[in-house]
Design a protein that fits this description.
There is one protein chain. By secondary structure, this protein is mainly alpha-helical. The chain has one domain. It has three helices and no strands. It comes from Chitiniphilus eburneus. This is Glycine zipper 2TM domain-containing protein. Pfam families: Rick_17kDa_Anti. InterPro entries: Gly_zipper_2TM_dom.
Amino acid sequence: MNQTLIKAVGATLLLAALGGCSSMDKQTRNTAAGAAIGGAAGAILTNGSAVGTVGGAAVGGVIGHETTKD
């Protein structure tokens, strides 16, 4: 199976699992979701590079956090 497809499916499953985090406030949920999406995007764009994945997660987390700031 294509590794890109496997990563995309894994990211989708991770996002679905985050839906069960009902005790989190909106900003925390968006931070976690942004990190998950950013990590998946970073992995896809850099062909699975660890630096790309971590960098994407960091950027996505910051964006998710900042979009719901009061």
